[in-house]
Specification:
alpha/beta; Alpha-Beta Plaits; six-stranded parallel beta sheet; 216 residues; Rossmann fold; elongated; 2 domains
Length: 216
């Protein structure tokens, strides 16, 4: 895919390299030419110094052919304007804007602009690390009401079945990694030593999950 990133800060530069490693074509725009020095030497995409609100800059960067655009400047207002410009004028299929203020993020979502609030994510991650002790959070849904965790199978579970770690509507084992391969288990699958388990759990049932796994 052709992806345009507005703002070559630490997040923008890191995202550019990550996307390039995933075989996407990446173009960077930043009003400070020195910002492109943050890009790794391995970056092979195009860079355009200039104002992202300038339609000429956006056109030269190929926005009319872009599949995605990420607005990652330090300014919420600029990110919103660029995102809406890309979405409504240039019809970019997927547009995401970075928002620092969580309350603004909710407002912009109602306007049809998909946002990522780094503050909200940071708060959520701290809460996860504090409350999901001894369980590694790999993904959360909503405002943290449901999380996906990964954990080495505990000694208490070895030889027992997935059904013993399943609570309808609260806890579900969705995958097991064993011997370098990952698979979706049945309720009758038996846990083995060395298994890595992936579990979807409601926030209200975390203590129950810990008890079932012998982690309390």
């Amino acid at each position: 895919m052709k992806i345009i990133i507005i703002g070559c800060g630490r997040m923008g530069a890191g995202l550019a390299l990550y996307l390039q490693m995933s075989n996407h074509s990446v173009t960077m725009i930043d009003n400070d030419p020195a910002a492109f020095e943050r890009l790794e030497p391995a970056f092979k995409g195009q860079t355009f110094p200039g104002d992202a609100l300038d339609r000429d800059i956006l056109t030269r960067a190929g926005i009319e052919r872009a599949d995605c655009l990420a607005a990652l400047t330090p300014n919420d207002s600029i990110n919103l304007v660029v995102a809406r410009l890309a979405k409504e004028v240039f019809k970019v299929p997927k547009v995401v804007a970075r928002m620092y203020e969580p309350r603004k993020s909710e407002i912009y979502r109602r306007l049809g602009v998909q946002t990522v609030s780094t503050v909200s994510l940071g708060i959520q991650r701290f809460a996860e690390l504090l409350t999901f002790s001894r369980l590694d959070i790999i993904h959360s849904l909503g405002s943290g009401e449901v999380g996906t965790v990964e954990s080495d199978v505990s000694p208490l579970l070895i030889g027992r079945m997935v059904n013993d770690l399943t609570v309808a509507g609260e806890i579900m084992v969705v995958a097991i990694s064993r011997g370098g391969k990952i698979f979706i288990p049945t309720l009758g699958t038996v846990f083995q030593k060395g298994d890595m388990v992936y579990i979807v759990v409601s926030a209200a049932s975390v203590d129950h999950l810990k008890a079932l796994m012998g982690l309390t």
